[in-house]
Amino acid sequence: MTVLNSFALVGKVAIVSGCDTGLGQGMARALAQAGADIVGVNLSAPVDTAAQVRTLGRQFLDLRANLSDTACIDGLVRDAKALAGHVDILVNNAGIIRRDDAIKFSEKDWDDVMNLNLKSVFFFSQAVARQFIAQGGGGKIINVASMLSFQGGVRVPSYTASKSGVMGITRLMANEWASQRINVNAIAPGYMATNNTAPLRADAERSAAILERIPAGRWGQPDDLAGPVVFLASQASDYVNGYTVAVDGGWLAR
């Protein structure tokens, strides 16, 4: 096998949550370009994502679920397996953010974010890992962390806690499941041009301050995650376990 062939995902089935727009859409598209069929798990219809994947000649299974309620997860894995008889990759991308001063942050805003951003990541990973073990061939789990897995942030208490937790449980799951040939890693996007950062980009002063700090001098785009997600989903990363890859234009290097 050549090194380029080790990145190929032909014949693989990838579950990608939160792929109707933004980073999730970009990662689903990249995995399909590498040859994977995609199972999208979303609240809203992923019309554009489905069209992009099918245009590439890959299958797209549209599943709807609110991952804040973990009761749906086993059914989602069963439905994904029905696509081709197996599941090979999970990308835990679905997430939300709530902004308010820590001094007045509400319990509801805490619970809503933690349930989706952290609790569902663990239990979706658990269910898929059980499927990997039943199949006997290992698999790849890729969690979406954040710059706030490394830093404290401002006015996003539950988001910071959840993304710090994502990096922690990525390591924990990697420790426990590496012997089963299950690789668990994470991608930590920097400041990306997505719905979550729309308020920051709309604030001219804040946006300028952010761009001044980023060595690359620009906001990230969904396609910036294409290479990292394909790498972590493929055989090329078979000896990479428990690592969080920052894709941040150099933000953390400053």
Strand content: 5-15%
Oligomeric status:
single chain
Cα radius of gyration in angstroms: 17 Å
Tell me roughly what share of residues is in helical segments.
Answer: 40-55%
- Give the CATH level 1 class: Alpha Beta
Low-confidence stretches: none
CATH architecture: 3-Layer(aba) Sandwich
State the distance separating the first and last CA atoms.
Answer: 39 Å
Helix-strand makeup class: alpha/beta
Arithmetic mean pLDDT: 97
Q: Estimate nothing, just give the exact number of structural domains.
A: 1
Strand order of the largest sheet: 3-2-1-4-5-6-7
User: How many separate helices?
Assistant: 8
β-strand number: 7
How does this model look, in words?
The structure is a single chain. The chain has one domain: 3-Layer(aba) Sandwich (Rossmann fold). The protein has eight helices and seven strands. It is of the alpha/beta class and 254 residues long. Strand 4, helix 4 and strand 5 form a beta-alpha-beta unit. Strands 3-2-1-4-5-6-7 form a seven-stranded parallel sheet, sandwiched between helices. Helices cover 42% and strands 15% of the residues. It is globular, with a radius of gyration of 17 Å. The model has no long low-confidence stretch (mean pLDDT 97).
Brief characterization of the structure:
With 254 residues, the protein is α/β, with parallel strands linked by helices. The chain is 42% helix and 15% strand. Helix 1 packs parallel to helix 2 (47-55), helix 1 crosses helix 8 (226-233) and helix 4 packs parallel to helix 5.
Which helices and strands, and how do they pair?
Elements: E1 13-17, H1 22-33, E2 37-42, H2 47-55, E3 60-64, H3 73-84, E4 89-92, H4 107-135, E5 139-144, H5 157-177, E6 182-189, H6 198-202, H7 204-213, H8 226-233, E7 244-247
Parallel strand pairs: 1-2, 1-4, 2-3, 4-5, 5-6, 6-7
Helix pairs in contact: 1-2, 1-8, 4-5
